[in-house]
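[step 3/7] fold_predict: job queued, chain A
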Amino acid sequence: MTNLDTALAYLREHADEHMAGLDEFLRIPSVSADPQRRGDVRRAAQWIAEELTRIGAEHATITDTSSHPIVTADWLHAGPEAPTAIVYCHYDVQPVDPLDEWVRPPFEPRYEDDIVYARGSGDDKGQLFMHLKAAEAWLKGVGSLPLNLRFFFEGDEEHEAEPSETFVKTHPELLAGDLCIVSDSDMQDDEGTPAITYGLRGLAYWEVKVFGPFQDLHSGQYGGGVDNPANVLARMVASLTDERGRVTVPGFYDRVRELTPEEHADYAAVPFDEADWAERIKVTGPMYGEPGSTLLERLSARPTFDINGLWGGYSGEGSKTIIPAFAGAKISSRLVPDQDHREIEQLLVEHLQRVAPPTVRVEVKVIQGGQPVVTPLDHPALVIAAHALEETFGKPPVFHRSGGSIPVVAAMEQELGLPCIMVGFASPNGNFHAPNEWMPLANYRGGMDALLRLWQELGAASPADLRAR
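[step 4/7] structure written:
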């Protein structure tokens, strides 16, 4: 029996025990955006640190940040000739609102038809848990790992980027390695087709407020004489895009890296049913979008602009004829290589200030930002990961870019020179940020098996080759 066979057998023998541990982890309401949950977020960090120590990892440490703790640990006994991989996941979760749409309380795992329903089951506590159990299978079942591992688990991914980005800059010694393995993404479909995410979009996020009179005014007395902040805000926001959603801010597209003919061909080869996509989210069809880009390309390889929230004035029952004193909006843009979120943030601030009339006061606040990331498709670690996934799931993985953002991934590439390989096991329709988040147990089992194989094959690779970008 090979070491891999022994590790796989360990997972089978301890499956029930592992699922009980998953339940315990999922029950911790680690909602990073809720100040009232700060103690619960720390409790989740402590749970991870204790688990890392129990399974045989060393130097498990909880480091405080400006927000929530970061957990690190390592096992570095495979020797200097073996590569060192950093394992990154996040243990914080999204808020659970609207609570009344959950079939059961969000932090009480529900099992049905070989699926677990709970907040964090797929994004991202469940995937973090897979890495813990894969490490346990090697360390407890075999007695050693086939490569050196460092663990890096944060509690702010769903909340803000600054704490983890600062940690990367100030603690490079804890993240020294040859590559990073990230599990915060999904499979290609809900039928067990594996996927490797080789690109992430960046993010820029703003809050805009428009202030007018000192208080709400009677629209019959003042309408036509006072600039309405809600009207002004609507015009300002409308000026940011055209009817196809293309951003109209001067300079926005100056640095966009266009897809090559080969990349267009790769996108065309990805299985994707537009009608099914629209049916699943209950829309009549996709938006018109930019000419020359397919829907799949627009979902992950083109920049976007979205209003995430609008408020101001009266929104209760019946009518209240007022000119509101202020109006606000939260807006965001997903960015692609080679856009820089700091440059885009400044371009939008300047545009909004330029189009605002002098009769109102405008405040634009940058909330957060992160850079886009793309890993070359011929990177040796991607080739290794593809083989491990195919061996596990019985079919080759689909290579795709994600429309989402993980700011710390860009920070690790830019600050530490670490190529990041994104291997995720959540279901793409798993309600990550919505009620009744779910994850197939088959994805847990397959994910842990795939990680065992991935670490074994990475352990046989050259550190220098893996570190190349």
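[step 5/7] annotate
The domain at 202-256+303-370 is CATH 3.30.70.360 (Alpha-Beta Plaits).
The two ends are 36 Å apart (CA to CA).
exit 0
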